[in-house]
Amino acid sequence: MTFNVVYTARWEPPAAVDARQAVDDGVEAESLASGVSHSNSSVVLSVSTSTHFLFGYSTVFTAGYSGYSTVFTAGYSGYIIVFTAGYSGYIAVFTAGYSGYSTVFTAGYSGYIAVFTAGYSGYIAVFTAGYSGYSTVFTAGYSGYIAVFTAGYSGYIAVFTAGYSGYIAVFTAGYSGYITVFTAGYSGYITVFTAGIQWVHDLCNARLTAAKAFAKHVVNSSTQGTWLLSALSVAVASGCPPVAVVFTGSCRGVATTPEVAVVFTGSCRGVATTPEVAVVFPGSCRGVATTPEVAVVFTGSCRGVATTPEQAGSVAQRRLARGVRLNYPESVALIASVLQELVRDGWSVSQLMEKGRTMLGIRQVLPGVPDMVQEVQIEATFADGTKLVTVHKPIARQDGDLDLALYGSFLPVPPLSTFTDRQQITDETAEVVEAALDVLAGEVITQPGNIVLNEGRPTALLNVTNLCDRPVQVGSHYHFTECNRHLRFDRVAAIGMRLVEHSSGNSREVRTWRKQAGESGADWRLQGDVQPGPREEMNRQLYAHMYGPTAGDKVRLGDTSLVLEVERDMAVYGDECKFGGGKVLRESMGQAADRPSRDVLDTVITNALVVDAIVGIVKGDIGIKDGFIVGIGKAGNPETMNGVDKRLVVGACTEVIAGEGLLVTAGALDGHVHFICPQLAGEAIASGVTTMFGGGTGPATGSKATTCTPGPNHIRDMMLSTDSLPLNFGFTGKGNTSCPSGVAEDLREQVMAGAMGLKLHEDWGSTPSAIDTCLRAADEFDIQVMIHTDTLNESACVEDTIDVFKGRTIHTYHTEGAGGGHAPDILRVVGERAVLPSSTNPTRPYTVNTMDEHLDMLMVCHHLDSNLSEDVCFAESRIRAETISAEDVLQDVGAISMMSSDSQAMGRVGEVITRTWQTADKMKIVRGRLPEEKGDNDNIRIKRYLAKYTINPALTHGMAHLIGSLEDDKMADLVLWKPAFFGAKPEMVLKSGQITWSQMGLANASIPTPEPVQQREMFGACGKSPGANSVVFVSKVSLDRGIIQGYGLSKRAVAVSGCRRLTKADMVLNDLCPVITVDPQSYRVHLLTTGEEGEKREHLTCPPSSRLPLAQRYFLF
After folding, report:
1. Which of the residues in the chain have pLDDT under 70?
2. Which residues are annotated binding-site positions for Ni(2+)?
3. b/e burial code for range 818-829 (CB count within 10 A of at least 16 → b)
4. Which of 154, 506, 897, 930 has its CA 20 to 30 A from that of 275?
């Protein structure tokens, strides 16, 4: 017979009542206990207990808890039996190594009561009737305890040390002492626990007579008040004390363990907690994934945080409490999480909209954050159901209400004077570079003046009267002659004209503009008083707000010092495409009517600001058809709009992505990837990378050090493994072998299997013979060779390796050398025409912490032993501040042409883009604007750095015919950015024109924007879409021989080409071939130039950065 306690069945106050008996399976009606209710084998017992039965516990409680601390100090002897036998549900709430305990009380009790008031009224009744002294304890007797929490927990340990010294000893012993204490030091505890277990087993195992006898014993022993005895669902054979309580009423089943795991599985609000109070809401309304460390999952850019506002908000509250000025994600999370708590307390939507604007002030957040946080939206369950709360301009006051900001945290409220700029701790004597902190991220700087709309178009003046009792609004491109019949005007004169707006109940003279002539829409003849009209103008600032910046306007990239200027706008002012209610892209207006799908775009991105190393920095509509870029220009309906590109017609078969105010770049290429784990793909695409190539087979020791996918089988398997991932891939075979002439057979086999390149790595032996052999194979099959040269100079020095190249094209990885290469002067290769050099991102840019992180990074990556002096010497030879600082300068002048990650092997796959722009920003601060810049902008530097991870790696590896820029007829692999987040967090990523990754809020929300907004997979990453929207790059010979076709890939295989004809001159905006020297003793790097004054030596160096843009302003961790 199993006994359950159903807390919602029926509760009686814990006072003595007449004993009566509930029977089940023939139990006779006689007194079992006081206050028993019976329902389907579930028994609720309200019994009296004696000091003997509960070992003194009831004495303590009847005294109003005044002896509560005595119980704890005396050894817990009576404490366990009560909680084990009768109050196991109670212990479930309050015990979790005290970490859960503090969390419960951190919620301010209101959340605690709120949880149980929804269908647990009986539970509250117990607390109200039987535990009236409970509040007294915590209000009066434990007021110092609360004070401890208020003081920032510093006194918390002191309290436990002073009053609970034995308890602390238990936990500080690492639990091994815990057992010892329970066995030896708390022998009374074990006795009690054993007794309690036996009683429960008696209750569970014995037949009905034993249960009756037990209940009689309990009743007969009751001499001091009435207490609830819970017979919990304990399996007969478990051999354990009761550990679970189930609340089965009202769809709120609760299962608890002594570790305080709680699950609310009912009503789409499942909650699972650990002792660290991690919470998972798996229900359809509240998707939440958490860990004990405040629920952080890194899903994007190595920093994308998938968490709830409540848990990210807890991190933000802790930081705020210690005086840290909050960044963007912290500010949003704190406001959202506190709003959720206030919803639970009963505040209304309108009240929360006001409250949300008072939590944080300008002084409590980093400079620029108030402008980044334009609004915060949440959806929460109110008493009247789920509702949307929107807080506009939430950070507007000088100082926020910190009591409100820390609401429910029980954290100390810091004085307002605490909030100052915290500088990075650096050597005060060292010269450092600091990115500006007080910048407006993504600011748009418009030119003064106005934009002339519909310039040169004929106009007609019409007298229009609205006879309707409702307002009539007419969109700008609506055929005016066809508008509402309640408008009275000369409709013949209006044929072929359009209007903006007309209000109700009045008459006025309006000016209409002539549409573009055509066959669709109204059938018209030009009549009436048509004449050239006055200039219609719009303020440039308003225009930029509506349609994005136009020619001559400037935009800051993220929070960097880099400012671009729009070089050209392809729009026809007054005929812009814009989607929305009452706007342009409607049938027969901006959208052409009756056009088959073959004649219109699949997707148009309207009014986008294109930033591209080839196309330039231009404004226009981007047309996409069949996964390819059709063109960038003026899209729309040629029958009603001027200047429409015939390739960019918008029809009923066209989807629209609003690009107003967004920057669009080509998807990034990461050309140095160690394929160590498949999770790299998610990190990469979330950062804006759409193509990855390199080598590896997983976390094999060879792959963790080298980008080689060795052998035909591994090459095939990696293609199959990545076939469902929404990125373009390519795999490099192992190039380390040698033969005296011709093509080595092992290299031939790998290229025939589909290797799109070959990798030479010193860990496999980058000997002169291996280099020559590999380059011969590359020339034979038109593929690229990537090399990691000989750091040890074991078989050759850098000049010897250059000689072995013999003018043949080769891509040198991490050309500075911290990632590996001839020590200390591998940088000399940047002066070779046949060498296409790149950097990997851990040294980008040189900062105050760069040197300190690299030694351990290198030891792990290359399987070195810190106990072996030769391994340490090898590692230290690769880490040189002088050459790393020179690398910054060489990137800036275009001598190093590319950027890549070296993922998980001394590089970060999600930071290729971020670190590129951090380097560019640092170089502008150190070296100023480039002398070749035209105008007050950084356009050339921006295009130079953009080329490093787009067109140049595409050219280098024979992919530029398909990807790498936004030129016509290339794959529509696009990344859309909000200017404020450029380089840090993309807004949307498209693969072949299909949205694959995007910022997205709660799926159950009424709109897509309530928090938490984070990067998430979209449909382009699901199902069979990756096979349709992505490609795998392979060698041409593997396609020609039909080998790839035999793999059964869903992705299209594309051959690389043109790899062997390249020189440094082909590197877009990164083609400088300087003469470089590196001192072998001091490691100082010099640039040699020869002029009229003879040879000149320029020392290439720069100070480290102590603060970078695109860093702590954007990321939670």
Report:
1. 1-310, 421-430, 499-534
2. 672, 674, 759, 788, 814, 902
3. bbbbbbbbbbbb
4. 154
